[in-house]
Automatic annotation (TrEMBL), chain A:
<dbReference type="InterPro" id="IPR000674">
    <property type="entry name" value="Ald_Oxase/Xan_DH_a/b"/>
</dbReference>
<dbReference type="GO" id="GO:0016491">
    <property type="term" value="F:oxidoreductase activity"/>
</dbReference>
<dbReference type="InterPro" id="IPR006311">
    <property type="entry name" value="TAT_signal"/>
</dbReference>
<dbReference type="InterPro" id="IPR008274">
    <property type="entry name" value="AldOxase/xan_DH_MoCoBD1"/>
</dbReference>
<dbReference type="InterPro" id="IPR052516">
    <property type="entry name" value="N-heterocyclic_Hydroxylase"/>
</dbReference>
<dbReference type="InterPro" id="IPR019546">
    <property type="entry name" value="TAT_signal_bac_arc"/>
</dbReference>
<dbReference type="InterPro" id="IPR046867">
    <property type="entry name" value="AldOxase/xan_DH_MoCoBD2"/>
</dbReference>
<protein>
    <submittedName>
        <fullName>Isoquinoline 1-oxidoreductase beta subunit</fullName>
    </submittedName>
</protein>
<dbReference type="InterPro" id="IPR012368">
    <property type="entry name" value="OxRdtase_Mopterin-bd_su_IorB"/>
</dbReference>
TrEMBL record, chain B:
<dbReference type="InterPro" id="IPR036884">
    <property type="entry name" value="2Fe-2S-bd_dom_sf"/>
</dbReference>
<dbReference type="InterPro" id="IPR001041">
    <property type="entry name" value="2Fe-2S_ferredoxin-type"/>
</dbReference>
<dbReference type="InterPro" id="IPR002888">
    <property type="entry name" value="2Fe-2S-bd"/>
</dbReference>
<dbReference type="InterPro" id="IPR006058">
    <property type="entry name" value="2Fe2S_fd_BS"/>
</dbReference>
<keyword id="KW-0001">2Fe-2S</keyword>
<feature type="domain" description="2Fe-2S ferredoxin-type">
    <location>
        <begin position="1"/>
        <end position="77"/>
    </location>
</feature>
<dbReference type="GO" id="GO:0051537">
    <property type="term" value="F:2 iron, 2 sulfur cluster binding"/>
</dbReference>
<dbReference type="InterPro" id="IPR036010">
    <property type="entry name" value="2Fe-2S_ferredoxin-like_sf"/>
</dbReference>
<dbReference type="GO" id="GO:0046872">
    <property type="term" value="F:metal ion binding"/>
</dbReference>
């Protein structure tokens, strides 16, 4: 116990072994879930049909429970589309709900635990949710057949109405209670694509109405429990610092402040409402122990990274003797790139609501990796896993920020609840609110990175060899995901998009090196692709320029073995009129990239303002993400992905001075705004392949497409980001 | 201190410290959570409300200065422009995460009330203060034009 108090944070971190155990347990659970235990029977008396993914209620609503967090990507609606289609429900009767934490029922089949990320929602759930809808329909039909005394084969379901040629009809809701008593079919027949009524067509988002009227209880920050207190936490301004001592005498005087606690992550101010908690925190006098903190500036950290790229690293890809191939080349192009830390800046800062009565704990928040969060809560509170309940709420964005491997928000609120309990405080629910400054200066950034490229060319302008060295802090190393994602000691997340390129270079070798720093890093919309796509795709344009080739033609030549990438590239080029002349003052650039199984090509059209800054006028995108489940949402995600990537590439960076973060809010970390937004056209390639992700793949190509357009205009290659450094913004 | 003001057409009394931003008073004292916290420094527009019809940043308004003020929040948005905007937003599936959209809708409503047929430049000028991290800007722009047509029709 004493040991636990002394090393609370380590204690809170799920050990690798626990994680593996959890994964194994969850996978076992998944098999059970696939067989769908007949939980419906218990609910039969209520007249409700309740299966893990589908609840059909007597009021004729059909709730589809999304096992994935919805952070704006349309995930819950996408999964509901699948159920509604197979069940033949009407669009009107569908309601979207987010499933609570339950790894047995709701594991991500690609992770083995319940969690959302890597644009995996649709790929891992496509069959599962269709099956759930089909099973529900079979049970409804079978119940109707018994009730009406007719053969099941004569019953049809359309737009939520069950009917028989004799004229008998019923709603899904009317049959729910009876259907609940039917056996769950193990292998329900699925529709063939020609029978789909929503998939590939249209299923407008069911969450939009709530989001246009300011509906209550949507987001964590809006969620309230009776008697709830609100807390802010003063965390170390330098990463890795801890509280040495503090003086709360001024803070305590603020009316509304209830109690002030030291917890492992800092000093928590507990108040009756948000404003006193924010105000009082500013009055705390805290002395920090920086002995283990990062005290360097980001410039110094970048120098270290650049230096690391000049030395041999861990082998990620090795086709052959790259040094010999470069040596034998007629010409070697050398390019260095550097990328800054990026904050996610989700519109809703982090927050969490929790309550703990000493035996049971309940949480309400936008949990993105529920199984990890669940386990951390149980461990810190010292209660069994089943005594923890996590209710998933909608998220005001995430872009990766809520998918922490260390579950730090759960950890922090759990420690705070323990402290409140130990202090003998009356049991009251608590909400921890992060301010924008907490969010911006709080770390968990896209890692900064340095890249060194050498490209060999022969006399005819053919690529002979590519050597690629990258250095960054690893997101995976030392995290709960290490056993799953880093089995061979290599962090593939860092190099994805480069090491697996399908450009047919005769020899390509890639090495990586890991920076050590207490600055916490995390996946940021499209993860490794945020930098590798930029490097690979601007490299391609430099090769084209150097060898006098057309950028599209060069890519097509080297993509002979990649028909899907070829397709999107050709489609985007055609729709953008690549071969037609541009009006005076306009310039084009192209990039094509595969990420998370999806292929996206983008052509950016730019101009320059009178002051020399760049304006992105138009982006023409082509996308192949397999079967396009909801085409309009795919367009929306590509639009948003482009905007998100563009804002970062234009002007976002988090810098440190002596370990202190310089950019603290949207005034210094300037977001993309309306007047920056280009016109966007999205073309979707028809496909019968399994669906792949779309939350992230729109982001990687935009940076290089714009950079290539700038280079086409001015022969200026931007290799140090963001563009503000080049005076272009 | 105690301040009486009109919120969405109703007289409300707020009992809180005079420096409490209207944003937190609405959310915590009155339980009206449609108005969102995004930055707290007038840089994002998530907290937009109308003060006498003018879009204002509720994170910057202290309740001590609001005695008698007439405030409209997203919960009370109504009238021709607001309804056209909400309908257009729903028609075009504008929101993604949705967190910024209360502010966007109130900014767009104020724009259309002043300028029923806004140009793209008008939209840039009126909407640039409202950040959307999901970058739904292309649809917001289109929805404002659609709402303008609806108001005419
Ligand atoms: S919260 Fe008021 S402008 Fe951002
Ligand atoms: S819809 Fe997410 S911030 Fe605007």
């Amino acid at each position: 116990m004493l040991h636990q108090l002394q090393k609370p944070l380590e204690q809170a971190k799920p050990s690798r072994r626990t994680f593996l155990k959890m994964s194994a347990g969850a996978v076992g659970g998944l098999i059970l879930a696939a067989k769908l235990p007949n939980t419906a029977k218990a609910a039969a008396g209520s007249g409700e049909f309740a299966q893990p993914f589908v609840h059909i209620r007597p009021d004729n609503t059909v709730a589809v429970l999304s096992k994935h967090l919805d952070k704006g990507q349309g995930t819950a609606n996408g999964l509901a589309t699948l159920v509604a289609d197979e069940l033949d429900a009407s669009h009107e009767q569908i309601v979207l709900e987010l499933a609570p934490s339950n790894p047995q029922l709701y594991a991500n089949s690609l992770f083995g635990v319940q969690g959302t990320g890597g644009s995996t929602a649709m790929p891992n759930a496509f069959m599962q949710y269709r099956q759930a809808g089909a099973a529900a329909k079979a049970m409804i039909v079978s119940a109707a057949a018994k009730e009406w005394g007719v053969p099941a084969g004569e019953i049809t379901v359309s737009s939520g109405v069950v009917s028989h040629p004799s004229g008998k009809t019923a709603t899904l809701g009317e049959l729910a209670g009876l259907a609940a008593q039917e056996e769950v079919p193990a292998d329900p027949a699925l529709k063939t694509p020609d029978q789909w009524v929503y998939i590939g067509k249209s299923f407008p988002r069911k969450d939009v109405k709530n989001k246009t009227v300011g509906a209550p209880d949507t987001y964590t920050i809006d969620f309230k429990r009776d008697g709830m207190l609100t807390a802010t936490v003063a965390r170390s301004p330098r990463f890795g610092g801890t509280v040495k001592s503090f003086d709360a005498s001024e803070a305590e005087k603020v009316p509304g402040v209830v109690e002030i606690f030291q917890i492992p992550s800092g000093v928590a101010v507990v108040a009756e409402s948000t404003w006193p908690a924010i105000k009082a925190r500013d009055l705390l006098e805290i002395e920090w122990d920086d002995s283990a903190a990062e005290t360097r500036s980001s410039d110094a950290m970048m120098s270290e990274l650049k230096d690391m790229t000049t030395k041999p690293g861990l082998t990620v890809r090795e086709d052959g003797d790259v040094d010999a191939a470069l040596e034998a080349s007629a010409n070697v192009m050398k390019i260095d790139y550097d990328f800054p830390f990026l904050a996610h800046g989700a519109m809703e800062p982090l927050d969490i609501v929790a309550e703990f009565d000493g035996e049971k704990a309940e949480f309400w928040f936008a949990s993105q990796i529920q199984t990890l969060d669940h386990n951390v809560a149980a461990t810190i509170l010292g209660i069994p896993f089943e005594n923890v309940q996590i209710n998933t709420l909608w998220s005001g964005g995430s872009f990766g920020r809520r998918a922490q491997q260390d579950s730090h928000p759960v950890s922090e609120v759990s420690f705070l609840m323990k402290a409140m309990r130990d202090a003998g405080m009356e049991k009251r629910p608590i909400k921890i609110v992060w301010t924008r400054e907490d969010d911006m200066t709080g770390g968990y950034y896209r890692p900064m990175s340095a890249h060194k490229i050498k490209v060999g060319l022969d006399d005819d302008g053919n690529v002979t060899a590519v050597k690629y060295n990258i250095a960054a802090k690893s997101i995976i190393k030392g995290s709960a995901f290490e056993p799953m994602l880093m089995a061979d000691g290599v962090d593939h997340n860092m190099t994805e998009g480069a090491s697996d390129t399908t450009y047919s270079f005769p020899v390509m070798n890639m090495e990586q090196a890991f920076q050590e720093t207490p600055v916490p890093v995390l996946w940021w919309r499209s993860v490794g692709h945020t930098h590798t796509a930029y490097v690979m795709e601007t490299m391609m344009d430099r090769i084209a320029k150097e060898t006098g080739k057309d950028p599209v033609a060069l890519r097509l030549e080297l993509l002979k073995d990649d028909p899907r990438k070829t397709n999107v590239l050709k489609l985007a080029a055609e729709k953008a009129g690549w071969d037609t002349p541009l009006p005076e003052g306009r310039h084009r650039g192209v990039a094509v990239h595969k990420s998370f199984g999806s292929y996206v090509a983008e052509v950016a059209e730019i101009s320059f303002r009178e002051d020399g800054t760049v304006k992105v006028e138009k982006v023409t995108a082509a996308v192949d993400c397999g079967i396009p489940v909801n085409p309009d949402n795919i367009r929306a995600q590509v639009e948003g992905g482009i905007g998100y990537g563009l804002g970062a590439i234009l002007r976002n960076q988090v810098t440190l001075t002596d370990g202190y973060v310089e950019e603290t809010n949207f005034d210094t970390y300037e977001s993309l705004r309306m007047s920056d937004m280009p016109e966007i056209e999205v073309h979707i390639v028809p496909s019968t392949e399994s669906p792949t992700g779309i939350g992230e793949p729109g982001t990687p190509p935009i940076g290089p497409a714009v950079a290539n357009a700038i280079a086409a205009a001015r022969d200026e290659w931007i290799t140090s980001l963001p563009f503000t450094k080049a005076g272009l913004v | 201190m105690s301040v009486t003001l009109t919120i969405n057409g109703e007289k409300r009394t707020l009992d809180a410290a005079s420096d409490t931003p209207l944003l937190w008073a609405l959310r915590d004292e009155l339980g009206m959570t449609g108005t969102k916290f995004g930055c707290g420094i007038a840089s994002c527009g998530a907290c937009t409300v109308h003060w006498d019809g003018i879009p204002s940043r509720s994170c910057q308004l202290q309740i001590g200065d609001l005695e008698g003020a007439n405030i409209t929040t997203i919960e009370g948005a109504n009238g021709k422009a607001a309804e056209a905007v909400q309908a257009a937003w729903q028609e075009l599936d504008v929101p993604q995460c949705g967190y910024c959209q209360s502010g966007q809708i109130l900014a767009a409503t104020a724009l259309l009330s002043e300028t029923p047929k806004p140009t793209d430049d008008d939209i840039d000028a009126a909407m640039d203060g409202n950040v959307c991290r999901c970058a739904t800007y292309a649809r917001i722009r289109k929805a404002i034009h659609v709402a303008a047509d609806k108001m005419e029709g």
